Amino acid sequence: MKTPTGPPLATSNERRPMRPLPLLVAATLTLSAGASRAATWPERPVTMIVPFAAGGPTDVVARIVGDHMSRTLGQQIVIENVAGAGGTTGITRGAQSAPDGYTIMMGHMGTHGAAPAVYPNLKYDPSKDFAPIGLAAGTPILIVARKNFPAKDLKEFVAQAKASGDKLNEAHAGVGSVSFTTCSLLNSILGTKPARVVYRGTGPALNDLVSGQVDYMCDQIVNLVPQIQAGTIRAYAVALPQRSPALPDVPTTTEGGLPEFQVSAWNAIFAPKGTPKEIVAKLSDALLKALDDEATKKRLLDLGADLTDKASRTPEGLQKLVEREVARWSKVLKNVGAAPN
Ligand code: MLT
What we know:
341 residues; alpha/beta; 18% strand; binds D-malate
């Protein structure tokens, strides 16, 4: 048997300075420590960064899905709202957090689709700097207005918007957000240039729409259903091919004579790049269990979420969705002149 090579072993009476552990031993110790941490993860609550103000659609999806995931994981998923810069402030913080499974993020079509086109110096790459976990919910877009807006249907809204030039106030959640991106597309189709009022999320924006401080907004359905049902805002159309089961009385944009405005958003969970695959697998399993849970599904569907895209619920599926959406929105935003370069 080959005798082990390497420095001669010290005899008992020789005093030698402590030598650093050979690299291979140190690496093995580190790897096994990481593997054991992943095996016992989670041992404390997990922070989920929501990159917009509380009460908006991304917050709503995060809390509904996170509630069931907490039960599966046996540790609380604690929502931390970190708003700013169309959601990129919170996502940047999440991307730069330790890849230990204790910080995850709820991103969406804005932060992980539109953002690279509107932020030349974006501090993350949506398709490279994350460990994707999975799609949580598709979120169709509605054109909504303050309840006393002087238009009885979408045709009249379009006529009013075109006649008002820059007099109307449109609310959104920051450059690159879903509300900004989708209403950039709408304004481009209508040829309108409204005053664009920015909020830390469409939760606060909705409050001002209800109180009549702003005129209209393009927002995700999961933020709007209760207000529309209560009659505190007007819904002119849903930008889908068919009406939403959650809002059967709201016509589609096609029915309203605006077939070219068909757009939907989505919200999805990401961990920082480098998160151990065992932890990614546990997070993915908890997400899939949440989306299979009847009560959780009902809460999302009652708010108009679209749960049909099952392929994007896996890490691999979400990675493909992000790559498609970054390519798509960079083209759309350049065409509508919303991309600075
Ligand atoms: C929110 O949760 O406030 C929205 O997702 C913001 C947006 O992207 O419009």
